[in-house]
Write a structure and sequence with these properties.
The protein is mainly α. It is built from 13 helices and three strands.
Length: 379
């Protein structure tokens, strides 16, 4: 387990270092001050590091006490973000609360709040998880509150992400797969209907289906994202155009420093670097699962699984978006994209995950068990 912790931390450090380097390149094109993004990113990384270190020292079982208050606080922030004068409307979305010189993104806080809330609830109700009320109705009501507030921002990307993660946690927690699938599909149908009623979202789907037709409009970022990957493979496709030599960052990719930072990696550093980045997220997933399987109790196991899935699934969605596999969504690439709220929450999640891993070292663990054994028994 010590090697698992060390390797996990090493991968995260490599990813954040790569993020700072690529942001330094992106800053040179977006602002006259070439240090604009990477200096701010380093400041946020310093704060995130403090949060992570503090989180490693707090026994993860403490979060049982604050899971519900944190969830309520997160819901309050998601409500406040829609109030003019408190929330900030940027590019048609109410996703930020401005506090002086900084913007706080409540949807990021909702990620960790939901993980802790569902871990607490599922672990507490293990013996009665087969009951419809405790295993399906109440968890989906809790998710519904968060999902509804995220949808009206609107932030469909985060809605789909947190919904997928919490459903995955419910499956791991022993909820029967039949009712879980039926309820999950009904929720997906509801979100789909909302998407069809949203002209902005529908235009993105049409742009995804026919990007050439909407090249000068909604498919602008997707087309230029694909061109960035193409530029990186023109001559020395193994190693790209070279660090700092991206052309797409010059106002072709408006979000080159956030959601679409991975195409800049592909353009400047090439195929090998891109595959290494993908492989590191795969390793994070494997290491996170190992931590979850060795956790001392159900609460720790669910926290570790939820955090691992939240980080790696978000990365997977980001990869799918920038390569044109799914419609455009506003989800950053964890540890690499620019963003203070994302880094702080990611730092907290990493610290909690490490504490779960360390607890399995310092205290005698419960005998290993198959996390799906209850489900196997039911079948």
């Amino acid at each position: 387990m010590r090697r698992t912790i060390s390797l996990f931390i090493a991968i995260v450090l490599i990813l954040v270092t790569l993020g700072v380097l690529i942001l330094a390149s992106a800053s040179s094109a977006k602002y006259e001050d070439a240090s604009y993004f990477w200096v701010r990113q380093i400041i946020w990384l310093g704060l995130a590091s403090v949060v992570a270190v503090v989180a490693t020292q707090i026994d993860y079982r403490f979060y049982k006490k604050i899971a519900v208050p944190l969830a309520c606080f997160s819901v309050l922030l998601l409500i406040l973000v829609r109030i003019p004068g408190i929330g900030s409307n940027i590019n048609g979305s109410w996703r930020w609360i401005r506090l002086g010189p900084i913007n706080i993104q409540p949807s990021e806080i909702s990620k960790i709040a939901l993980i802790l809330l569902f871990s607490w609830w599922l672990a507490r109700n293990q013996r009665r998880i087969d009951e419809f009320k405790r295993g399906i109705f109440i968890p989906f009501c809790m998710l519904g509150v968060f999902a509804s507030l995220l949808v009206i921002e609107p932030d469909f990307g985060t809605t789909m992400l947190v919904s997928s993660v919490t459903v995955g946690m419910m499956f791991l927690g022993g909820v029967s797969i039949g009712p879980l699938l039926i309820t999950g599909l009904l929720g997906l149908l509801g979100v789909t209907l909302l998407i069809f009623q949203n002209p902005e979202r529908m235009s993105r789907i049409l742009a995804f289906l026919d990007p050439q037709k909407y090249e000068q409009d909604k498919a602008w970022q997707l087309i230029n994202s694909l061109r960035a990957f193409a530029n990186g493979s023109r001559e020395t496709w193994w190693f790209g155009q070279g660090f700092g030599n991206s052309m797409q960052k010059y106002n072709y990719l408006p979000e080159a420093h956030t959601d679409f930072i991975f195409p800049i990696i592909g353009e400047e550093l090439g195929l090998i670097a891109s595959l290494i980045v993908v492989f590191m997220y795969v390793l994070l997933f494997i290491l996170g699962l190992r931590i979850a399987l060795n956790a001392r109790d159900d609460f720790g196991r669910l926290i570790a699984f939820g955090i691992t899935l939240m980080i790696t699934l978000q990365a997977l969605i980001n990869f799918a978006v920038v390569t044109g596999c799914v419609p455009t969504k506003g989800l950053a690439l964890p540890f690499i994209s620019y963003g203070g709220s994302s880094l702080l929450v990611s730092g907290a999640m990493i610290g909690i995950l490490i504490n779960v891993a360390r607890s399995s070292l310092h205290e005698k663990s419960n005998p290993k068990r198959n996390p799906f054994k209850d489900r196997a028994r039911k079948v």
